[in-house]
Each structure stands twice: as structure tokens, then as C-alpha cells.
Amino acid sequence: MKAITVALATASLSLFCYSASAEEVQHVRLATTTSTYHSGLLDYLLPEFEQDTGYKVDVVAAGTGKSLKMGENGDVDLVMTHAPKAEANFVEQGFGVLPRKLMYNDFVIVGPHADPAKVAQQKDIAEVFKSIATSDSTFVSRGDDSGTHKKEKGIWQQTQMEPNFAGYRSVGQGMGPTLNMANEMQGYTMTDRGTWLAYNNTLDLEILFEGDKNLFNPYQVILVNPQRYPRINYQGAKIFSDWLVTAKGQQLINEFKLNGKQLFVANANEL
């Protein structure tokens, strides 16, 4: 009987190992924002997910606009983005399914310590943008149709001003390179707090404005519609999405810190 028990246990272990091995070769393609990527969050989360499930996540870091476009083309299995209106349109047009709240942080305005546009003295984000434009200070825009860029364009619309002043620089880059350019030019830029915390030790800039309700920065995870693209790895994408909103996934998001500071707040369970 003992020999049979050992044999059954060995067979079960072999089956488990084979199953795990089979799962390990399955890849999930994720398109996400450069702000998420540069923060280091995925480097923190993915080893845990891959260990738990055997799946491998291949990450493509682009702006939200480009990430959603990859989803529209069926080039990825799911997206993790931060532009609510564009995301709603993505789902309404039938490209995405099962949108889920994931986490949030906020945007901040950073700039030179001298603060020539007196940004720190302004009462709201619209006044901040006006003060930068009217002082003809340097403002470095991502200019890449990312979620950050979409947010910036929305704020310019609120000001009823066109960002065509001499100091406006549209660079078509991700958040990290944009911060580096703002630092080199000693200009202002708008950044998500996560990337700022990842980069600020190397920059001669500081946060000059924060806390406006219009700077709220929510992230969602959305699966690409398998009815439109049946060859995508919908099963793997859903397993990843499900894992992100589990108690473990949400706890890991909350625990992720840089220099002792929390970068994101998990909110999958918020109504």
C-alpha cells in the first residue's frame, strides 16, 4: 500500500510539473503606459504573477493612445491604461471587454526651483497653465497621445488657450525622457507621481503644484475582445486581469514603494 501511495504521489507531482511547464510557455501580451513601466511597478508584480500561474507576460510600453491602438489591431491580449474617455470609447466600439478599475495616483506639475511662472502660487491647475503660458516659460509636453498628454490637452481646453507660446515644447516621448528634457531645459512639465518618484533623485526639479481634483489619475485594465480577435490569448489575459484584482494583487500594488513612498493606490473594489 505504501508503494502505491508513493507511486500515486509521484504521478501527481509529475502531472503538476507537466501542467506548470505547459503553462510556462504560454505568453500574455500586455500593452501599458510608459508611466506604469518607468515606475517599476510591473517589475515588482510580474514575477509574483508568473510564479503563481506559470504564465509569462510580454510587456509593450507605449502611451495610452498607442496601447489602445494595439488593442484595436489585436496585437496584444490586454491593455493597462489611464485615459477614461479613450478607454470608454475603446470598449463602446467593441475592441475591449471586461474593463476593471485597478489603481490610481495623481498628476503633479514639476519645474525649476526658481519657479519663474509662480506656479506654486496658483489656486487651480487651469491657473497654473495660464501662468506658464503668459510668462512665456518653458513647458515640455509629452506630445505622444498618451494618457498624460490627453490630460494635458484637456486642461489647455479648460483654459481656453492654445499652447502655442514660444516656450512650449512637444517632444513625442515617454514620461521618463520628457522629465529628463524638462530638467535639461529647466522648464515645467506635468508628470504622474509614480514616474516622478522613480526619477526625482536624478533631477534638479521639484513639485510645484499638486492636489487639484482634476489631476486625479485612474488606471484600468481591459481585455481585448476575443470575438473580434479569436487568436488572442484571452484565457491568459483574463487570468492576469483576475489576478491583478485579487486581494494579493491589490495588496502588492499598495505595498510597492520607492524611497519609502507609495506610488499607487489599489482601487479594484471601489464602486
UniProtKB/TrEMBL annotation:
Database matches in Pfam families: PBP_like_2 (PF12849)
Every PBP domain range: 29-247
Signal peptide segment: 1-22
Keywords linked to the UniProt accession: Signal
Keyword Transmembrane on entry: no
Cited PANTHER family: EXTRACELLULAR TUNGSTATE BINDING PROTEIN
Name of the molecule in the record: Tungsten ABC transporter substrate-binding protein
